[in-house]
Amino acid sequence: MTDVSAGQPNAPLGIGSIIGESFSILFGKFFQVVLIAFGPAVIGLVISGLLIGFGAMSGTAEPDLSGGAGSAFAILFAVIIQFVVYAVTTALLVQLAYDAKLGRSIQIGRYIGPAFSSVLPIVVLSLVAGVLFMIGFALLIVPGLWIYAVFAVMAPAVVIEKAGFGGLGRSAALTKEYRWPIVGAFVLIIIISIVINMVAGLIIGVISALVGSVIVDVILSAALSTIGAGLGSIMVALIYARLREIKEGVSVDQIAAVFD
Predict the structure, then answer these.
(1) Is residue 1 part of a domain?
(2) Structurally, how many domains does the chain consist of?
(3) Which keywords does UniProt give here (predicted)?
(4) C-alpha span between 98 and 161 (Å, rounded)
(5) How confident is the model at residue 228 (pLDDT cuts 50, 70, 90)?
(6) How many other C-beta atoms can be found within 10 angstroms of the C-beta atom of residue 225?
């Protein structure tokens, strides 16, 4: 593809507009977003709860490591399950974001095939990127944020372009010269999510204390994670679309056409 930005001043990424549109899509298509993200979140939380305990899963207790290698394996498997949930949810929501942006009808059934064909590379690459992020985060935080920005659009690249295990390299190429604006968007979304999670967490805590049911805890925890997953996936999809527009002259309708 031709890089239309070559030899020209960098066009702005437009983070404010992207964040605003992310919220617009999230709340404008809230039922569909919840429908897509809630199921995988519940399944992931139930499996993780069975593996490491529902208290550890919800953050109200420490994981039990008394079982030695068996317990460590259970924790590792629970982490992998959460990456699978992330992969499925993101792959589905990326497609929803483009249909919503274009004003097209949301067709969840049409998203399933491309989503599941992308799960394995997204899981593997997310694990690699996650390890690099944690190493960078341990080095005074900022390097971790920069690493996140480098690989931020890996999932859309895998889903849309069928980049497979080359998704990290494709993301690195697309985000070049735009990583600090992406860091800014990431930090802002974290702050917003913390505020939302604090308010929602207080409400969930009160309900959970009153009801005292594991099932209710799982449902409420899944509902809370759905909001964050939906917002993050939509924002990443829009950042990817904007980068393709700036660097390659590819419009959103051309990106979405791969699913037609």
Answers:
(1) no
(2) 1
(3) Membrane, Transmembrane, Transmembrane helix
(4) 14
(5) confident
(6) 22
